[in-house]
Amino acid sequence: MSSFKLPEASHDLLEIPRQDIPAVVHDLIGRRSLSALVRTIHGELASEDPGLRRQARMALDRLGFPE
Prior knowledge:
Layout: H1 10-14, H2 21-30, H3 34-45, H4 50-63
Helix pairs in contact: 3-4
């Protein structure tokens, strides 16, 4: 993996360059942390803050989860 810390929320994920996302996902799976990240992002989708909802949607898109 690159020198990035593993993401814990949408804002962390969006700071990682697109070309590094596959390696990050691989590491998240290896550490059994991917489902926790997706659960956090889904919680952000339910936020009353439209900016956080938009950010969460962009993070899911970056992970390859279509709307």
